[in-house]
Amino acid sequence: MANKKIRRGAPSKYSDKFTPKMAGWLARDGATNEEIAAKLEISTVTLYDWIKKYPELSNAIKRGKEVVDREVEDSLLKRAMGYDYTREEVEVNTIAGGKSDRVFSKKKTIDVHVSPDPTSLIFWLCNRKPGQWRRNPTFVDFEKAKGEITELFDKMKSTSST
How many angstroms separate the CA atoms of 47 and 28, rounded? Predict the structure, then answer.
């Protein structure tokens, strides 16, 4: 009797050209590994096996996630620090004029200030300086931390108003 290889499971859906590209796009869009596996119509276990087996897939997912992570970091920092932006509005006015009304519009530019967000600040500090800011009563003096946050806000207010 000849030795036969026993094949188990469905044939692999992995494609050298398609799979890494698709997985990278999904990762860049913020998908988790579980979501990537679902979109590729494979199990999460299969995805992790492929990541180990195919370095191009692993690299594509890492690169995709890095882009999103950097964008989220930038957004968190921006929100934590506060920011300014300019917005345009269209003002529409109607003047009654007997048989016909006259409508005219005027564009105006508005400068908007978004104040720093305390939750974003605390989140950033807890992750960037865990020894000082993590919520562990043995390490953090909350009254001191509260005072430091208030002091930080006061500095930011005085800087933005000048």
Answer: 17
In DSSP terms, 92 is beta-bridged to 105
**Predicted local confidence at residue 46, as pLDDT:** 93
* pTM (2 d.p.): 0.47
DSSP string, 98-128: TTS-EEEEEEEEEEEEEPP-HHHHHHHHHHH
Instruction: Please tell me whether residue 25 adopts helix, strand or coil conformation.
Output: helix
**What is the rounded distance in angstroms from the CA atom of residue 124 to the CA atom of residue 41?**
36
Q: What is the pLDDT of residue 5?
A: 59
* Residue with the two structure tokens 């796009």: 25
In the chain, which ranges are E strands? Answer: 83-95, 102-114
Residue stretches of the chain with pLDDT short of 50: 1
Q: What stretch of H or E contains 21?
A: helix 18-28
Task: Yes or no: say if 65 and 48 are a contact pair by the CB < 8 Å rule.
Answer: no
Give the pLDDT of residue 57. 94
Cα–Cα distance between 50 and 107 in angstroms, integer? 55
Residue 5 DSSP symbol: P
Q: Which residues are within 8 A (CB) of 24 and not within 5 positions of it... i.e. 6 or more apart?
A: 60, 61, 63, 64
